[in-house]
Amino acid sequence: MRERPTGMNEYRPFSVLLLRSPKTVAELLTGVELADDARRPGRQAFVDEVLALIPLEECTTDVARVHARLMAHVRRTGKTRGAYDLMIAATAAATARVIITMDASAAFDDLPGVRAEVIPR
């Protein structure tokens, strides 16, 4: 099992595969806000590294089209998905990127056209 990364420098070789959407930024910042006083500085430092190293992807018409396709897919299959997860998935698929996540329950790679790697917690 891989060690949990201590910072974004460990992901630097893969930065072309990473993306940050407004939704991922919101989720990362929520983690900072929810952290206890002991963990907050470390989480904030990690988020600051992410924001400095990884480009922000805009929500384009292409992203909206992929989002609509994914939304139709989940409605047809009856599998509920979070709105943020679908937007993150749509952004990744529309920009040909891989989602890097610690949330295995999101099951991003079950979505058509979406690639994901789960990093152990």
UniProtKB/TrEMBL annotation:
Keywords from UniProt, A to Z, are: Hydrolase, Magnesium, Metal-binding, Nuclease, Toxin-antitoxin system
Q: Does the keyword ATP-binding apply?
A: no
InterPro entries listed in its UniProt record: PIN-like_dom_sf, PIN_dom, Type_II_TA_system_RNase
UniProt KW Transcription keyword? no
Note the SUPFAM superfamilies from the entry.
Answer: PIN domain-like
One Pfam family recorded for the sequence: PIN
Which cofactor(s) does the record list? Mg(2+)
Q: Which Gene3D superfamilies match?
A: 5'-nuclease
* GO function terms (MF aspect): hydrolase activity; metal ion binding; nuclease activity
Could you tell me which residue ranges the PIN domain spans?
21-105
Q: What family does the Swiss-Prot or TrEMBL record give for this protein?
A: Belongs to the PINc/VapC protein family.
Q: What is this protein called?
A: PIN domain-containing protein
Species this chain originates from: Planobispora rosea
